[in-house]
Design brief:
The chain is α+β, with helices and mostly antiparallel strands. It folds into 5 domains: 114 residues, no CATH class; 66 residues, no CATH class; 68 residues; 87 residues; 68 residues, Orthogonal Bundle (Arc Repressor Mutant, subunit A), CATH 1.10.10.60. The protein has 22 helices and 8 strands. The longest helix has 41 residues.
Length: 479
């Protein structure tokens, strides 16, 4: 049985200004510039301030906005204006959105295909070679089984072939540059690169190690290699040195990621020292000052003077203008709120890390987490996270991501809390100074840190070592 009931409840709801501000907080300086340009293009009531006169017009616009509203000259009982007419994207019906492709250099696969021209292949063999090249990953490896590739060529290209023919054509591809391309595993990759080198005694020893003692080599069991291949220590050291110069991922030498290569970091904050004091500023060099278009404000006032005497067309126009002015005002207020929030958060961070910013010494960095900043700014942790997301700070000793300034605290034996970054720096130094022929295991690292006054568990040492991308002791061994 259906029944209607009424329920009264309270719930929190974000205002348009709050929603706008939250979205803008996540943007970096470059993204903010693009967002402002886009907003100016879409909203004719929003303009850039170029001089003091424009700033005065902006103040006048805000004052006029407080004096009257669109509701003052629109009849609440008149519903003759359809709601869809108050919405616009400022695009003509005959304008089609076009996606423009960015030009880039030659792809890795195309680079390999071009090298097919140096070999005498018939049309059948060339089609198979192109299919094989298309199956090679970006790092240069062919990870698919040749039997599966053979079936795919038959079904997709209607080309009859067999595994033996694929092996023959793959050998041709493996002779291409970069050396090692088309390999099916790391062992084959290293052997292909050694094959193109001049056949010296060292290179021959390196090939024997990879072909006959690859498992021992990966585990750094050098004693077993020396006994098995009857190689003395000096020759073994030279051969290992030759192997470690090889590239385990040959395809990475030909990267297609031009956007990452050309990426430039633009700092969002600039920190300077003036008269011994730290001064933090927002990097808003290319971010324009905004104001409400004075012409739209004047038009709004003219329609306000016609209250009760407007035609339907006038009401539509007035509603459009009022909507655009309100939208512009929300956007300007959101930009200002963003600037205030960013500066307030950054000032707290600079105050907590004052010694680090004055000295540039990483050892002076204090432990700090998001909750510390949230407690001092009375903001939510999620808001602090948005402020930090993708942001950078420029100092006199370098440019750093804001996340770099945060680290966990570690309790030492004298009762003081130190930054985990400090522990990692000491751990890194201990490993750099160790005897590489007999590297320190995690238990020995724990004892070394304890001697220096840092009493931490072995699992914590292992965690920090992994975060520093340092392998276990067995894999750090050298001869």
């Amino acid at each position: 049985m259906l029944k209607q009931t009424q329920n009264l409840k309270q719930q929190q709801k974000l205002t348009p200004l709050q929603l706008q501000t939250i979205k803008l907080l996540e943007l970096t300086t470059i993204e903010l510039e693009e967002r402002i340009k886009s907003e100016i293009e879409e909203n004719p009531a929003l303009d850039e301030s170029e001089n003091a006169e424009q700033n005065e017009l902006e103040a006048t616009a805000e004052k006029n906005e407080d004096e009257f509203s669109i509701k003052d000259y629109l009849d609440d009982e008149d519903d003759s204006i359809p709601s869809y007419k108050s919405q616009t994207h400022n695009y003509s019906n005959n304008i089609k959105k076009t996606d423009y492709a960015l030009s880039s250099g030659e792809s890795f696969q195309q680079y390999l295909i071009d090298q097919l021209g140096f070999h005498s292949l018939n049309e059948h063999q060339r089609s198979i070679a192109i299919f094989l090249i298309g199956s090679i990953d970006d790092d240069g490896y062919l990870r698919r089984d040749l039997n599966f590739i053979c079936d795919d060529i038959v079904f997709k290209q209607n080309i009859n072939t067999n595994k033996e023919e694929l092996e023959h054509i793959l050998k041709i591809i493996q002779s291409f540059e970069p050396a090692g391309v088309g390999c099916r595993n790391l062992q084959e990759c290293l052997l292909l690169q050694l094959d193109v080198k001049q056949h010296t005694q060292t290179v021959n020893d390196a090939k024997k190690i990879i072909s006959k003692c690859f498992d021992e080599f990966t585990k750094k069991h050098y004693d077993k290699i020396s006994r098995k291949l009857d190689i003395n220590e000096d020759d073994l050291r030279n051969a290992i040195s030759e192997i470690v110069k090889l590239n385990p991922k040959p395809g990475n030498l030909f990267s297609d990621d031009y956007s990452e290569q050309g990426k430039t970091i633009i700092p969002d904050f600039v920190l300077d020292i003036k008269d011994g004091e730290l001064v933090i500023e927002l990097n808003s060099y290319n971010v324009p000052d905004l104001h409400v278009n004075a012409n739209y404000v004047q038009m709004m006032r003219q329609y306000a003077s016609k209250k009760g005497k407007m035609s339907v067309h006038d009401k539509e126009t007035a509603q459009f203008i009022g909507q655009k002015i309100t939208s512009a005002k929300y956007f300007i207020d959101a930009i200002r709120q963003r600037h205030r929030t960013l500066l307030n958060v950054m000032k707290i961070i600079v105050d907590l890390q004052r010694n680090y910013f004055l000295s540039g010494d990483e050892d002076q960095m204090k432990p700090m987490i998001l909750k510390d900043i949230a407690a001092r700014t009375n903001l939510d942790v999620s808001t602090i996270s948005r402020v930090l997301n993708g942001k950078y700070i420029q100092t006199y000793f370098g440019i750093f991501p804001l996340r770099y300034l945060f680290s966990e605290s570690v309790h030492v034996k004298d009762g003081e809390d130190v930054s985990s970054r400090e522990i990692k720096a000491i751990l890194q130094k201990c490993i750099n100074d160790e005897d590489k022929s007999n590297p320190l295991v995690d238990a020995q690292l724990v004892a070394t840190l304890k001697e220096k006054g840092y009493s931490i568990a072995r699992r914590t040492v292992a965690k920090y070592r992994e975060q520093l991308n340092i392998p276990v002791a067995r894999l750090r061994k050298e001869i």
